[in-house]
Design a protein that fits this description.
Chain lengths: 169, 800, 439
């Protein structure tokens, strides 16, 4: 049962999922990509997402929850339209990662895992994102921003507010 | 596999290659501690308690995952190992609440024991502990998260053992937590719950007090109870359950049921009924005084003397004036063998009639007849755990016989046993089946015929002809097949199936019935046409000679009520049964019948009685019961309630009041072998110290006529198949008995018997009339009604 | 996009196509792409494995296991399908080398996967990228699609009669999944908890089949090694440490970046020459030489060659090649806290010593950092770390314990001075982070 009658996903994503479960030796391998792609579209892993993905793969909803709660990128609450993820791990920390995080908090008026009232931005302090040699770094909706300074952050926020940000989903 | 020899702590040990080191050591008497390891469940290597030093290995190794190898040299207790275990315990205890003084597990906690052993008592944890509130997952399962040490036993027990998969592991690291399958956000009360079979196996497996039982939590301390291992009163599997008993002002109260004694026929397993449904004994509606109906129709409490006197006089008068055949007797499915035997003996020799029957839940008469003259053809419950191939026709063991289901699942999982299932419903066990044949409704008889070679009835057996054919082919190719039969098959159909099974070399059979002693009731002759041991009434036998009972079959259960309706039944004596509810008897039918009921409660039947005698239940008496398979086990007295008497005692007293010859009815006095054990109290089964003392003083040990063991010698002497090993029984072990009805082979000559089998149709949370008086079962039914039934059915797809 | 750096001491093998547009398949082919796999087909599995063994290539993920030997462990015949698994779950703090490989030369990973597949007789490979590398996943996905379009992947590759498929996969945020068996669990749609070993992946791996799992850099080296010859590659490096390696130099250096240096290259030179020395002319305090799990080296301990054996002798590890440089301004207390916080966050929670140990050390160091510590706390941290070492289910416990032990042993006086001097500090870890770690 790779197809679902009343899918909550867009036709494109539903079609992608229909295909995704067929490419692996075991269909359950599609679980983590599906959760991530569903989150990209829906904004978070809602109960409806859990339910439909369980159905698509043919596992229990409990299994889906067991897995989704393990992975730190998956969230069960909505984030902002632009999810700002600031790395503060060692390489970034040495080059001002915490200053960048503090600047973001101040600028957006929200804390770790907070969402701005207008829903445009959310903020997260994250572990190493693999941009150590270009630190300090952050990701906004998967897009990397390197060698940050508070000034560059301001420019970036404005860019996203203006709808100029790149979305690499 | 070939044996290998290796050295542990300087001791040479031999074990089959591939055995896990922890198991090989256990067999050799060397205990290696472990939290996460649980025999038969998948390996985790998570708790790191079982670390040992193996020569030539760079690090300490986990004994729970290391297979033994030739020449291996192992140390299991060294300062290095002790330090590793101590540190692991310190790490665990850092965040563990030290609420041991109020924790249910206090005193029987593996973490406590290990801490004691490895001296991890000095705590240097100075950080705040993560507190979480206790969660009520169901009426019987509570979860105290901070106490959880994440050994994952519960998760595996639920998934691998029970095939329910109601528990999972969520989050990670120090936030990792055991989570039930109904999350708070999907629950009407915003609290997490567990949608499952409520078996409580997770609680049983929990090494600490993280999972606690709704019936027991915060009730008492383990050392304040006596622990009595007896047999569960509910289904026909006859699991051993250990009842925790505490003295009260009017007797002794059962406060806990569990499976701490794993020596029983059920091994590791116990279901929700065996674990929780003992509380009927304390139900507020329990009758604790004899009641006699007055002229105005009211029931009035009277003394035992008055009540027994009345019953005795009345029975005697009715027997003498209207004849024994005007009296009917109905026995129960939860009586002991001794009580059932005594009841039919009383009926046949004191009342002088064969009018005796019981609520039959499987056709054991046909079963015994079909196997007449065969040897080693009946299976023990233990065989379901070891048989290489099993054919299950009819029945739904998951619900009706949970220990059978547990054994079958375990056997498939651990031994790759081949399970073949034919059923008209998609029963849950099909998920373990090698082949599942979906039968047509009522297709059992046709299947029996088809298996036996009658291809003309294939379409009546199953809609899928191909599946049917390959099913028969696969089953016929098996050897040593264990054939489990549900109560759907009776009479000729049952015989046909058994006849087919007998063509398979080494095949063994079992017929699944519904209550603790349904099999015993039939074996003991609570039947109008069968004496004990399935000896037909009217045929010559030792028993018939000794009884000098009427040679014509008596009235069966339905005929008795018919007779009552016609005014032909002068008296009805109902012992531990509620036929009025089960068979929908019209109350008016009994208006001219003198009705005596022995029961715990004012059941539909008792409500029509003239005299009600308050009875003890199976947990309040000693004796023996026989499970569906023919496994005989000892029942021990755990609870006690002032004012009630055992059915055995009441039968004896009534007979006495009737002026019967008591020595003939109950051969009490100095017994041949009956003095080997004490039957009363928590020490039952141990040597009778009183008798030992009497013998030492040259005094004659005597048994009271109310001791059930007083009649066991007679059962053993007269009932074919009940050649009991007394010591085995009194040691609390099970023994398998086979019906021995060699003289009944001429099946064709038998006249067709009426099919009076009425399966109990109990769910996981009901247990006949008795179950209605279990508050916990009521709670569980209510709990079940609150949630959509969809969650469990989903699992169908989870197995792949 | 990460900027590319360069230094004359570099020996470019795996990075030789960086910055040349080789993510485009035609450019890759122009730069000798997909030649090695054809050689591999022509010469057969034994030749591939012999060449890899001769190259002295050791696993670039951090453990340093000889690659050719790993491939040779896979049984020739198997009832279950065999698999090649590329570990691109690059998550070790201080490490971003696979990042640039996927960005600049994704086809090298694809070609390397095919070569590994030919070597072990597998028909299917997986390239698993950490979830954060979405833009790189898209680059790799496109490269795979282009390779299919050219007929390089799929049925009968290069007329060999052999089929080979590649599936790309994303993670979703879990350091632990970098552990090989945890990665297999993750790829099978489960929680990223490691498996019990033995059996090892070469015998029972992904979907129960024999599996070769290699780091992305290791795999990307394979085509180069086949083209240049095993001995030639081996000669580039030091004894028993064949070839070159990507080193990501980050932290307080003037020119941070990913540099390809020969194995055995001096750590001092890597910092002071290749990466331009300490930033802003400050003094060096310490170096974490191979990702955050490696024990710290003090400023006096950096005269050591960058290979597996020399680093081991120096009491630390080469690890993942992520060299993190700390100048004199860094508080080791704060740094140690940040490191253990990471491991506490990433512990899968499966086994007791790691789950409880990382949490306890983090809490204690947090309290110390906030000014509530005592000298006994340093002892306790050391005791806890010592009792995690070698006792956990997987290497994550060691990865957390080793650096912690390095910090408290080598900088014990700094901890004690800190405790003396800080009766109240400025918290970098908030209470919310501390106790609200639960989701």
């Amino acid at each position: 049962m790779s197809t679902v009658a009343n899918t909550i996903f867009s036709p494109e994503l539903a079609a992608r999922f229909d295909h995704l479960v067929t490419i692996y030796p075991l269909r359950r391998s599609a679980l983590i990509p599906m959760l991530l792609y569903a989150q990209d579209e829906v904004g978070y892993i809602s109960e409806a997402v859990v339910s439909e993905i369980a159905q698509r793969i043919g596992i229990l909803e409990l299994d889906v929850r067991n897995v989704l709660s393990y992975y730190s990128m998956l969230r069960t609450k909505p984030a902002g339209k632009y999810n700002v993820q600031v790395c503060t791990n060692i390489s970034c920390m040495l080059r001002g990662g915490y200053e960048i995080l503090d600047h973001c908090k101040h600028k957006l008026g929200i804390g770790h895992k907070g969402v701005t009232p207008d829903g445009v931005f959310s903020l997260e302090e994250v572990e190493c994102i693999g941009a150590c040699c270009w630190a300090p770094a952050m990701q906004v909706n998967y897009d990397f921003h390197d060698d940050l300074t508070p000034g560059k952050v301001d420019v970036l926020f404005q860019m996203y507010r203006d709808g100029q940000g790149k979305d690499v989903k | 596999m070939a044996d290998v020899t290796f050295i542990v702590d300087g001791k040479q040990i031999t074990a089959p290659a591939g055995t896990l080191l922890i198991e090989a050591c256990k067999t050799a008497g060397i205990e290696i501690p472990a939290f996460c390891y649980y025999p038969g469940l998948s390996l985790q290597a998570a708790c790191r308690m079982c670390v040992v030093r193996i020569e030539k290995m760079p690090k300490l190794q986990t004994a729970c995952t290391t297979p033994v190898a030739e020449g291996m040299v192992v140390a299991t207790e060294t300062p290095e190992i002790a330090q590793a275990r101590k540190a692991t315990l310190q790490l665990l205890l850092g965040n563990h609440p030290l609420d041991c003084p109020v924790c249910d597990a206090g005193g029987e906690c593996e973490l406590q024991d290990m801490t004691f052993k490895y001296g991890a008592a000095d705590s240097f944890y100075a950080e705040p502990k993560n507190h979480r509130e206790e969660q009520k997952w169901s009426p019987v399962v509570y979860f105290d998260r901070p106490r959880c040490i994440l050994c994952y036993r519960c998760v595996r027990m639920c998934g691998e053992g029970m095939d329910v998969f109601a528990l999972g592991i969520q989050n990670r690291g120090s936030s990792a937590v055991i989570a039930p399958n109904v999350p708070a956000q999907l629950s009407p009360d915003d609290l997490a719950h567990v949608d499952c079979e409520q078996c409580g196996m997770c609680i049983d497996a929990c090494p600490v007090g993280a999972l606690t039982s709704g019936t027991y939590r915060y009730k008492t301390r383990p050392w304040e109870m006596n622990h009595v291992a007896t047999v569960c009163t509910h289904c026909g599997d006859g699991c051993k359950t250990t009842l925790g008993v505490r003295s009260t002002s009017d007797g002794s109260e059962i406060v806990r049921g569990d499976n701490r004694d794993k020596s029983g026929i059920n091994g590791d397993f116990l279901c929700n009924k065996g674990r929780y449904a003992f509380d009927f004994a304390n139900h507020e509606d329990r009758i604790t005084q004899p009641l006699v109906r007055q002229l105005n129709g009211e029931l009035k409490p009277v003394s035992w003397e008055v009540a027994l006197d009345l019953v005795g006089k009345k029975f005697r008068e009715l027997r003498d004036t209207r004849g024994g055949n005007s009296i009917g007797v109905l026995g129960g499915n939860r009586l002991t063998n001794e009580e059932a035997y005594l009841l039919q003996k009383f009926t046949r020799t004191v009342l002088g009639t064969n009018n005796i029957d019981h609520h039959r839940t499987a056709d054991y008469v046909a079963f015994a007849q079909a196997l007449a003259g065969q040897k080693d053809r009946t299976a023990s419950l233990r065989d379901t755990l070891t048989a290489k191939a099993i054919l299950l026709v009819g029945g739904d063991p998951t619900v009706q016989a949970p220990a059978t289901a547990w054994n079958l699942r375990t056997n498939v999982r651990l031994n790759r046993a081949k399970l073949y299932i034919a059923n008209s419903a998609e029963i849950k066990l099909r998920r373990q089946a090698k082949a599942f044949l979906h039968l047509a409704p009522f297709g059992y008889g046709a299947l029996a015929g088809y298996l036996g070679g009658d291809d003309t009835i294939a379409t009546s057996a199953a809609p899928d002809a191909t599946a049917l054919a390959s099913f028969r082919e696969a089953v016929k190719a098996e050897e040593d097949l264990l054939i489990l039969i549900g109560s759907e098959l009776r009479g000729a159909e049952l015989k046909k199936l058994i006849a087919f099974g007998l063509t398979i070399p080494g095949a063994k059979f079992a017929l699944i019935s519904d209550y603790a002693n349904s099999r015993g009731a039939a074996d003991m002759g609570l039947l109008p046409d069968m004496l004990p041991g399935y000896q037909a009434v009217g045929r010559a036998s030792d028993l018939a000679t000794e009884y000098a009972a009427p040679s014509a079959p008596g009235l069966d259960l339905l005929q008795m009520f018919d007779a009552a309706g016609k005014g032909e039944l002068s008296a009805l004596y109902v012992v531990n049964s509620n036929p009025v509810a089960k068979y929908g008897v019209d109350a008016a039918a009994l208006k001219d019948t003198f009705v005596v009921v022995q029961d715990m409660f004012l059941t539909e039947t008792a409500a029509l009685a003239d005299v009600i005698l308050p009875a003890a239940n199976l947990y309040e008496k000693a004796g023996s019961v026989t499970n569906s398979y023919g496994d005989l086990q000892q029942v021990k007295k755990a609870g006690d309630r002032a004012g009630v008497r055992t059915d055995f005692e009441m039968i004896v007293r009534i007979a006495d009041k009737m002026g019967a010859n008591m020595r003939a009815l109950v051969p009490f006095g100095k017994g041949l072998r009956a003095d080997m054990g004490q039957t009363r109290g928590a020490q039952s089964g141990e040597a009778d110290r009183h008798a030992v003392w009497l013998t030492a003083q040259n005094l004659e040990p005597r048994l009271s006529p109310f001791e059930q063991l007083a009649i066991l010698d007679e059962v053993q002497r007269l009932v074919p198949g009940y050649n009991i090993l007394r010591l085995q029984l009194l040691s609390g072990n099970d023994q398998h008995l086979e019906p021995a009805v060699a003289e009944l082979v001429q099946i064709g000559v038998q006249t067709a018997r009426r099919d009076l089998v009425q399966p109990a149709a109990d769910s996981l949370f009901t247990s006949g009339t008795l179950g209605r008086y279990s508050t916990m079962l009521s709670d569980l039914q209510h709990n079940e009604s609150l949630r959509p039934s969809s969650l469990l059915t989903q699992i169908q797809t989870a197995a792949d | 996009m990460p900027s590319l750096v360069s230094h004359p001491d570099e020996v470019k093998v795996v990075s030789r196509r960086f910055g040349m547009g080789a993510a485009e398949i035609d450019k890759y082919i122009e730069l000798d792409g997909y030649k090695a796999v054809q050689q591999a087909i022509a010469n057969g599995p034994a030749w591939i494995i012999d060449t890899m063994k001769a190259s002295g290539l050791r696993g670039r993920g951090g453990a340093g296991f000889p690659t050719g030997m790993k491939w040779s462990f896979v049984p020739k015949t198997s009832e279950k399908p065999k698999y090649v698994l590329v570990n691109g779950d690059e998550s070790e703090p201080g490490t971003c080398k696979d990042h640039v490989i996927f960005l600049h030369d994704p086809h090298a990973v694809i070609e390397g996967t095919m070569i590994a597949g030919l070597a072990i007789g597998s028909k299917m490979g997986f390239i698993y990228l950490r979830g954060e590398y979405r833009y790189l996943l898209k680059i790799v996905e496109k490269a795979v699609a282009d390779a299919y379009a050219k007929g390089f992947l799929g049925k009968n590759i290069f007329g060999s009669g052999v089929d080979f498929d590649i599936i790309t996969q994303t993670g979703a945020g879990a350091y632990e999944v970098g552990e090989e068996s945890a990665l297999m669990e993750s790829l099978e749609g489960k929680r990223g908890v490691p498996r019990i070993k033995p059996p090892f992946p070469a015998v029972v791996g992904l979907y129960g089949g024999p599996t070769v799992i290699n780091n992305a850099e290791t795999i990307a080296n394979a085509p180069h090694i086949l083209l240049m010859g095993g001995e030639a590659y081996a000669k580039l490096g030091s004894e028993r440490n064949g070839g070159t390696r990507l080193f990501g130099i980050s932290g307080h250096v003037e020119r941070p970046g990913v540099y390809e240096l020969p194995m055995g290259y001096s750590l001092r030179k890597a910092i002071y020459e290749v990466a331009g020395g300490i930033k802003d002319g400050k003094k060096l305090k310490a170096v974490v030489p191979g990702g955050s799990s490696c024990p710290v080296l003090t400023a006096d301990e950096i005269d050591v060659g960058l290979d597996f054996d020399q680093m081991g002798k120096a009491g630390t590890m080469l690890g993942s090649g992520g060299i993190v440089v700390l100048d004199e301004s860094v508080s080791i207390v704060e740094f140690a806290l940040r490191v253990i916080s990471f491991y506490q966050h990433e512990s899968c929670g499966w086994c007791i010593p790691c789950r409880e140990g990382t949490d306890w050390i983090k809490k204690t160091l947090t309290r110390v950092y906030n000014g509530g510590g005592s000298k006994k706390d340093v002892d306790n941290v050391q005791y806890l770390a010592e009792n995690m070492m070698g006792r956990t289910f997987c290497p994550l416990g060691d990865a957390a314990a080793m650096p912690t032990l390095g910090f408290v042993k080598k900088f014990r006086k700094e901890f004690e001075d800190y405790i003396e001097g800080h009766k109240a500090g400025t918290p970098i870890i908030t209470v919310e982070q501390l106790v609200g770690a639960g989701h």
